[in-house]
Design goal:
- It is built from 4 helices and 5 strands; from the N terminus they run H-E-E-H-H-E-H-E-E.
- The chain has 106 residues and is an alpha+beta fold.
- The protein has one domain: GMP Synthetase, Chain A, domain 3 (2-Layer Sandwich).
- The chain has a 3-stranded mixed beta sheet with strand order 1-2-3. Strands 4-5 form a two-stranded antiparallel sheet.
- Strand 4 and strand 5 form a beta hairpin.
- The longest helix is centred in the first third of the chain and has 13 residues.
- The C terminus is likely disordered.
Length: 106
């Protein structure tokens, strides 16, 4: 399974996000030829309400501990509550909006 799919499933299960976007920004290779994955995650979840950014990142890092140890060399996290996202961007993204009850793309 591609690392993006693993990350997606784990974050869906842990945070029931309103929106989740996972992008492999690039794959570099270290001196030994081992691939180094750079992953960007944008997640909107009301479960982040009341948490500081470092607390949100810590929670995500805990969920993705195995992937961080084995597969991901750089993880860029952009975490928002629905209120924070709407304050910044005015509307929720229409693409990849998740129905938290059905776990499907709406």
């Amino acid at each position: 399974m591609a690392i993006e799919l693993t990350i997606e499933q784990k974050l869906l299960d842990a945070f029931s996000p309103l929106h989740l976007d996972i992008t492999r920004e690039r794959v570099d290779f270290d001196l030994s030829g081992t691939p180094q994955s750079h992953i960007k995650v944008v997640i909107i979840a009301n479960g982040f309400d009341g948490l500081k950014i470092h607390q949100r990142h810590k929670a995500i890092n805990k969920v993705l501990a195995t992937e961080l140890a084995e597969d991901i060399s750089v993880l860029a996290l952009h975490t928002y509550t629905e209120k924070e996202w709407l304050y910044t961007y005015s509307t929720l993204p229409l693409f990849l909006r998740y129905d938290a009850t059905a776990q499907q793309i709406a």
